[in-house]
Amino acid sequence: MKIELKRVNDAVHFEASSPSSTVKVHIDGSSEIGGQGLGVRPMELILMALASCSSLDLITILQKQRQNITGFSASAEGKRTETIPHVFTSIHLTFQLKGDVDPLKAEKAAQLAVKKYCSVHDMLASAGVDITYSININEAHGKIESAVL
């Protein structure tokens, strides 16, 4: 696996690319170091990587179980240390599912997606990051919450 990173301006705005895609990702630093809000920040990319990695697996598992997903979104919120280098100490993922989805199948699929198949989870967890998740299905069915060990 390989990526390329190019500086775009005289500040800290970068453009990242990968041979596997034509999409360019814009990355920028905080305003304290000259960032201008022209891209996501590196630690936000970590949250995006965790949410997308586990979501890809969650959707794939539920589709194989013939669950009818008509809507999906995910969010990730991380807490960081106060001292430099401000690493993540905990991250909570929230999966929003809509459609005809069995809550027990969704719970098992989320557990497998996050704990077993998501390599980003394993990398962060091995560094001591506490990762938890919750699932909301159609909001009328209530909320299923689980901790990832």
Provide structural commentary:
With 149 residues, this protein is of the alpha+beta class. The protein folds into two domains: 4-33, no CATH class; 42-147, K homology (KH) domain (GMP Synthetase, Chain A, domain 3, 2-Layer Sandwich), CATH 3.30.300.20. The protein has three helices and seven strands; from the N terminus they run E-E-E-H-E-E-H-H-E-E. The protein has helices at 42-64, 103-117, 119-126, and strands at 4-7, 14-17, 25-27, 68-80, 88-100, 130-137, 143-147. The protein has a four-stranded mixed sheet with strand order 4-5-6-7. A three-stranded antiparallel sheet has the order 1-2-3, with no helix packed on it. Helix 1 (42-64) crosses helix 2 (103-117). The chain is globular and about 50 Å long. The relative contact order is 0.14. Residues 145-149 have low confidence and may be disordered.
Mean pLDDT: 93
The domain count comes to: 2
- Largest β sheet strand count, sense and barrel closure: 4 strands, mixed
* Unreliable spans: 145-149
CATH superfamily of the largest domain: K homology (KH) domain
Given the C-alpha coordinates, what overall shape results?
globular
Structural class: alpha+beta
Give the termini distance in whole angstroms.
28 Å
The rounded Rg comes to 17 Å
Order of helices and strands: EEEHEEHHEE
Give a nutshell description of this structure:
With 149 residues, the chain is an alpha+beta fold. The protein is 31% helix and 34% strand. Helix 1 packs across helix 2.
